[in-house]
Design a protein that fits this description.
The protein has about 300 residues and is of the alpha/beta class. The protein has helices at about 15-20, 45-60, 80-100, 115-130, 155-165, 180-185, 190-205, 240-245, 270-280; strands spanning about 1-5, 25-30, 60-65, 100-105, 140-145, 170-175, 210-215, 215-220, 230, 255-260. It has a single domain (about 1-280), classed as Alpha-Beta Barrel (TIM Barrel), CATH 3.20.20.
């Protein structure tokens, strides 16, 4: 796995790349603007170019922008839905300017309209976005949810439904957040549970659909539906759950981004979490731990532009 983290850009876009490499990042995720804003100041072309140059110079294997928190592509309210789509198109264009591989986003919430209606609205929103930016090269990655409230995407079947309705596997994919998986009831701390999880990934989503991971331990109990991140090995998932994942050769060329808590020492806790994860990687042995015998194509093509 290409291990990395989510870094801030207050010191500059290119500086975020250099800071990431200093703490051992092979991959990097950023916000392109404040996640609590519908829109942000335009990205200066020279700043975007400096970011792209830094990514190449530092040898990062993968890059991503994480969408802000306000947009809800599944909103049943016309104004909120329109505003969310507009913000999403803007974020896609910002990500394209930066030359990142992926734009990672929370699918949305149905707000009482029901699961099926909400999934249909998300698919319609994504279809509209793709029609608005046909020239975009950024892959849009739906992030699985913890399942709190009316949020959608905590079940693989919900993610698969949106992907099928949009019908653009060349433009879409999935990011799996380990804290969200655990909060949604997936227990992958033991060999058997991890194997069952991977079986479901392959059967429902298809391995090639998963293009990134968010690597976060969980403060809350299994099945709590609470999105509360913890540092690696300090939460309810523990080290063994992460050992399975980072040692799985199926994900050897997939980015894994930390979103774990930080303190007043800057990125020191990120550096510690990256070291912990790398220490968990086991040497290749036989086949990956899974009970399934059917394999889907895992064509990837993730590159740094």
């Amino acid at each position: 796995m290409w291990l990395g983290a989510h870094l801030g850009i207050s010191g500059g876009l290119a500086e975020a790349v250099r800071e990431g490499r200093k703490i051992g990042c092979e991959s990097l995720q950023i916000f392109s603007k404040s996640p609590q804003m519908w829109s942000g100041p335009p990205i200066a072309p020279d700043a975007a170019e400096a970011f792209r140059i830094a990514v190449r110079a530092e040898g990062l294997r993968a890059t991503a922008v994480h969408h802000g928190y306000l947009a809800n592509l599944g909103s049943p309210k016309a104004f909120g839905r329109k505003r969310s789509r507009f913000a999403f198109v803007d974020e896609v264009r910002r990500a394209d300017l930066l030359g990142v591989d992926a734009l990672i986003f929370h699918p949305g919430a149905h707000l009482g309209s029901g699961v099926e209606a909400g999934l249909r609205t998300i698919a319609e929103s994504l279809t509209a976005v793709l029609e608005e930016v046909p020239e975009s090269r950024v892959r849009l990655l739906l992030e699985n949810a913890a399942g709190q409230g009316t949020t959608l995407g905590s079940k693989f079947e919900e993610l698969a439904s949106v992907l099928a309705q949009v019908g653009r596997p060349d433009r879409l994919g999935v990011t799996l957040d380990t804290c969200h998986l655990f909060a949604a009831g997936f227990d992958f701390r033991e060999d058997r549970g991890y194997g069952e999880l991977m079986d479901q990934v392959e059967r429902v989503l298809g391995r090639g659909t998963v293009r990134a991971f968010h690597l976060n331990d969980a403060k809350a109990k299994l099945g709590s539906h609470l999105d509360r991140h913890e540092n690696i090995g300090k939460g309810e998932i523990g080290l063994e759950g992460f050992r399975h994942l980072v040692s799985d050769r199926r994900w050897a060329e997939t980015p894994g981004y930390l979103e774990t808590p930080l303190d007043d020492r800057g990125y020191a806790l990120y550096a510690a979490d990256l070291s912990t994860l790398r220490a968990l990687v086991e040497p290749p042995t036989a086949a990956p731990k899974t009970r399934t015998t059917t394999r889907r194509s895992a064509a990837r093509g993730s590159t740094v532009k």
